[in-house]
Amino acid sequence: MSHVHHRIPKSRGGTDEDWNLEEIDPYDHAYQHATDFVLFDHAPIFDCRHDAWPLLPEDLREAVRKELSVRMANRVVAEETKRKLAEANLGKKASLKTRQKMSASRKGKKASTSHRESIKKALMGHPVSDKSRETARVTCQENFRDTNSLKFRCLVTGKTTTAGPLTGYQKARGIDPSLRERVYE
């Protein structure tokens, strides 16, 4: 199987005339387009779904990924496009598998300060219902009660108290905080 390739890319003024077209194998086609994409700012976006993508050298694939990242970060999206995307996704919920993938991709990454500030600003102006407030209060009380009902004994000194104070007690005396046992009353 062969691909039709423009000798002079259309992004640099090439045409669809016969003299500018050549048949090449898929690997060479992907290689030329990936190289072109990395080297020239005005080259069209390289499609990583290309059949020969997995066959390209790893350093070229990494360069394509970096260039894609830079271009996507600097792209300008028209308001009309944003509106259409919002309408298309209105009411749709990502599948559990997709949500898990998105969550895994964000693990260990911290949001930028500006992103955290924008979320904080959005939440500060958002009204909280009395029901939500009451649910949060009850949940906090239950968590506090559960946490403070568990008692632990230091295996070195025998002191018995809840987890937090026992940790401080043990650290103050140079005792490893894992040297404790749960006390069942």
Could you describe the 3D structure shown?
Among the domains are: 3-73, no CATH class; 144-183. It is built from seven helices and five strands. The chain has helices at residues 26-39, 58-73, 79-89, 96-106, 113-124, 130-149, 163-172; strands at residues 3-6, 21-24, 151-154, 160-161, 180-183. The strands form two sheets. The chain has a three-stranded antiparallel beta sheet, with helices on one face. A hairpin with a 5-residue loop joins strand 3 (151-154) and strand 4 (160-161). It is elongated. The mean pLDDT is 85.
Q: In a few lines, what is going on in this structure?
A:
Helices cover 51% and strands 10% of the residues. It has helices spanning 26-39, 58-73, 79-89, 96-106, 113-124, 130-149, 163-172; strands at 3-6, 21-24, 151-154, 160-161, 180-183.
